[in-house]
Amino acid sequence: MRLRDRDNHLAWSEFLEIYEPVIYRLARRRYLQDADAREIVQEVLLRVAAAIDRFDPTASGSFRGWLSQTTRRVVVDRFRRIGDTALPVGGQLDLLAGVVDGAENPFEVEFDLEHRRQLFRCAAEHLQRELSATSWAAFWRTAVQGHPAQVVASQLGISEGAVYVARCRVLKRIREFVQQREAE
After folding, report:
1. Domain edges within the chain
2. Distance (Å, rounded) from C-alpha 128 to C-alpha 126?
3. Model pTM?
4. Per CATH, the architecture of 131-184 is what?
5. CB-based contacts of 6-13 (< 8 A; 24+ apart in sequence)
6. What is the SS3 string spanning 7-75?
7. pLDDT of the residue at 147
8. Stretch 19-39: mean pLDDT
């Protein structure tokens, strides 16, 4: 709803930080070239800007669902425009199968997963700047890279308990960041 205020630069900046990479990666997974994927992003952003005043969550469902469908429509339109030229093996029908509606919409599921990944990336980027290098390394090496806490503790020169505490605190802050963004 904050996007309806065209002068709310913070809302638009947060929207772009999260959703621009999501839309781009989904387009690239459909075998579109970089330039085509960037055009998809621009087209989706233009459609959002033009329609955000009319978005009604009671009629359209969640914002993320609405954005996912908008993205899917733009991708389908792109495939219709380019026809069979320069498509990978399998042709246009195989690619369109991944973006058309069905009983279970794989595009929307993929969009939601990519959205969650992007929220994690944003949270990690923001939190890494706020935390000590040791706390961040303890979290990253154990939670993301999967190294044992004992090994990480030895490498960082801290106790194994300190590694677990740092990991828990960072995970809590990441969850809070994600929950705050999803609530907005």
Report:
1. 2-119, 131-184
2. 6
3. 0.62
4. Orthogonal Bundle (1.10)
5. 11/184
6. CCHHHHHHHHHHHHHHHHHHHHCCCCCHHHHHHHHHHHHHHHHHHHHHCCHHHHCCHHHHHHHHHHHHH
7. 94
8. 87
